[in-house]
TrEMBL record:
Protein name, per record: Lipid A biosynthesis acyltransferase
Annotated localization: Cell inner membrane
InterPro entries named in the record: LipA_acyltrans
Pfam family, one: Lip_A_acyltrans
GO cellular component: plasma membrane
Gene Ontology process terms (BP): glycolipid biosynthetic process
Keywords for this protein: Acyltransferase, Cell inner membrane, Cell membrane, Membrane, Transferase
GO molecular function, one term: acyltransferase activity
Length: 286
C-alpha cells in the first residue's frame, strides 16, 4: 500500500495530469476486480442511497455502475492529493471553482469559530487545502493511519497547504481552543470511528454517526457550515459552501443535540444523493 501511494505521487508530480488520470484509472480497474470486501462495502452503501431516492428497491445496474465509478474516483482522489504540492494561490482556479464563499464569511463574522462538516465525498482533502489557500485558518481532525509512512505523507501534504492537523485520538482541548480563536475545524460527518456516536436516520435507516460537529456547535455557540468539494469532470472540481446552520438551545441538551445533528446530516445526504459515485467509503455504514 505504501508503494502504491508513492507511485501515485510519482504520477501526480512527474507526468501530465491527463496521462496520470488514465494510469490511475487502469489501476482502479484491477483494484475493483480483486478487492471483493471493499467492492461489497461500496455497493452496500450505494444500494441504500439509491433505495432511499426511489423509495423502493435500488436498480442493480446502477449500483454496480456507481460502485465501479467510486473506485475510479478514489484513484482520482489519491492522485489529486499527491498533486497538492503543485497547487497554490496562483493556479488553483484552473482546477477548482468556488460557490457559496459568502456563507463561510457570514459564519466567520460571528467571531465564534466555524465547524465545517463534510463527507468522504469528491475530494475532501483538496477542499480543506483550497480553503487554506483562500486565507481561512484551517484545522482538520484526522484519524492517524496505521502505517507510519502513509501517515507521515498525509500530514506533510495537508500541512504543506496550510491545513493544521489535529489527531482524532487526543484532540478535544485543541479543537475547542482553535474554535475560540475563531478558526475553522473541519470534521467528517458520514462515518463513525469508535463507538461515541449518536443514532440518526441516514438515507432512511438508523445508524450511528459522529456527534462531534453538533456537540461542538452547541457547546461553543458556533455555526456549522457544510462544505463539499465535488468532481464536475476530469481535472475540474467545485467547492461548495452551504448556509450556516445555527444551534438552537431549548434547555433539553439531548434533544438539541439530535435536532442539530440531523439538520446537518440532511445537507450531507443532499450532496451524497447528487454524487453517489463520489461517496468514497468502502465499509458498510448500516
Amino acid at each position: 500500500m505504501i508503494f502504491l501511494f508513492h507511485f501515485y505521487c510519482f504520477l501526480g508530480l512527474h507526468l501530465p495530469l491527463r496521462l496520470s488520470y488514465f494510469i490511475a484509472r487502469r489501476i482502479a480497474d484491477f483494484y475493483y476486480l480483486f478487492a471483493r470486501r471493499r467492492r461489497e462495502g461500496v455497493e452496500s452503501n450505494i444500494r441504500q442511497v439509491l433505495a432511499f431516492q426511489s423509495q423502493g428497491s435500488a436498480n442493480r445496474f446502477l449500483v454496480k455502475r456507481y460502485a465501479k465509478e467510486a473506485f475510479y474516483n478514489f484513484a482520482r482522489y489519491i492522485l489529486e492529493f499527491c498533486y497538492l504540492p503543485k497547487i497554490n494561490r496562483s493556479n488553483f482556479e484552473k482546477f477548482v471553482a468556488i460557490k457559496g464563499k459568502e456563507y463561510l464569511d457570514q459564519a466567520f463574522a460571528q467571531g465564534k469559530g466555524v465547524v465545517s462538516i463534510t463527507a468522504h465525498l469528491g475530494n475532501w482533502e483538496l477542499g480543506g487545502a483550497i480553503a487554506g489557500l483562500l486565507g481561512y485558518p484551517m484545522n482538520a481532525v484526522a484519524l492517524s493511519h496505521k502505517k507510519p509512512g502513509i501517515n507521515k505523507m498525509f500530514i506533510e501534504r495537508r500541512e504543506g497547504q496550510g491545513v493544521k492537523i489535529i489527531s482524532l485520538e487526543k484532540g478535544l482541548k485543541k479543537i475547542i481552543r482553535v474554535l475560540k480563536n475563531n478558526e475553522i475545524i473541519a470534521l467528517l460527518g458520514d462515518r463513525l470511528i469508535g463507538d461515541k456516536g449518536i443514532e440518526m436516520e441516514f438515507f432512511g435507516r438508523k445508524t450511528k454517526l459522529p456527534q462531534g460537529p453538533a456537540a461542538l456547535a452547541l457547546k461553543l455557540g458556533c455555526p456549522i457550515v457544510p462544505g463539499f468539494l465535488v468532481r464536475i469532470k476530469e481535472g475540474k472540481l467545485l467547492l461548495v459552501f452551504e448556509p450556516p446552520i445555527l444551534p438552537t438551545v431549548t434547555g433539553n441538551k439531548e434533544k438539541d443535540l439530535e435536532e442539530l445533528a440531523q439538520r446537518a446530516l440532511k445537507i450531507v445526504e443532499k450532496y451524497i444523493s447528487a454524487y453517489p459515485s463520489q461517496w468514497l467509503i468502502f465499509q458498510p455504514i448500516w
